[in-house]
Amino acid sequence: MPKAGYYAVAVGRTPGIYGTWAECQAQVTGFRAAQFKKFGSQREAEEFVRRHRAIKSDAAVPLAGTSSGGMVLPSRAQSKPDRVPAKNKGRTRGNSPIAEYAAADTLPERFAKLAAQGFMFTATSPPRLVVYTDGSGLSNGTRRACAGAGVYWGDGEAAQHNIAERVPGKLQTNNRGELLSIILALENCPFPDIDLEVRTDSQYSIMSMTVFLPTWIKNGWRTQAGPVKNVDMIRHLLVLMRRRQAPMRFKHVRGHSGHAGNDRADELARSGAAMPPLPDRRTWLDPDDEPVDHKSATDVAADIDPAWLMSEAEMEEYERSLAEEQSESRQEA
């Protein structure tokens, strides 16, 4: 059985005390400046929340299945989930519009033919091929955990390149699904010589592969919290990024906000999570085995609203919580 724990969410979609990492993760992933931590006792967890949010006892309701003295969550009247107004659907938290796709008749001949097949391109010069990636994790931290990856290239003829795949190996988490979806997009990109824009709602993936990557490499793939989590996938993805023939960039999109491309990738990821288990890959690419003349990963651009960025301390706290949940999952298995 996994260790008992109290996940305190001081700043998130619905602040309060949660009994599992999966519940906590749903409240903090993608939430600007989220504050959360796991404790061994309810008292410590409640004190953490009070220090950050000053939650009043009369604003709390019992967690389902507990007595009035059990774990509590704030009432929805006091703390509403973070939602995007209907008029802002398809926009980032900072309300900067996501670039519209270029109309086929405005593109150079080669790109126009591909757009007619259902592929998506940015209205930039040169145009960038757009792909949406997403991961899905269910029952994180339990022996029933399953995760999947989804890659959406478009509809029509482009749909034959869409991917839904189960995360390989025993470790099944949402973040591994997010990383795998980007890996699959690069491994199976139908036009590697065209500039690529990877659109994802995973702040974790973007920051791992851009903001924190140079420091992790310099420090031997370690953080103050210990070894970098999911380092096998991150190192593999680094090699794929360096091997690309054409430039690529990440673009952050708001998840579950009515954006069609992201929603389609999410559907594919959920389908992947429902697939039968897969053995772990026998080999993940190692950047140390690559020629030294490959371009640096820092050449990869990232387009993300600064309001969404985690601080390094928040990323480390996120990784600590993730490591604890992964450890508990292994013990239960």
Low-confidence stretches: 53-99
Q: Assign an overall shape.
A: globular
Secondary structure: number of strands: 14
Task: Tell me the β content.
Answer: 15-25%
- Looking at CATH, the homologous superfamily of the largest domain is Ribonuclease H-like superfamily/Ribonuclease H
Give the tally of structural domains: 2
At the third CATH level, what is the topology name of the largest domain?
Nucleotidyltransferase, domain 5
Strand count, sense and barrel status of the largest sheet are: 7 strands, mixed
The sequence of SSEs as H and E is EEHEHEEHEEEEHEHHEEHEHEH
Name of the CATH class of the largest domain: Alpha Beta
Q: Could you estimate the helical fraction of the residues in percent?
A: 25-40%
Cα-based radius of gyration, to the nearest Å? 21 Å
User: What integer is the average pLDDT?
Assistant: 76
Distance between the termini: 9 Å
Class from secondary-structure proportions: alpha+beta
CATH architecture of the largest domain: 2-Layer Sandwich
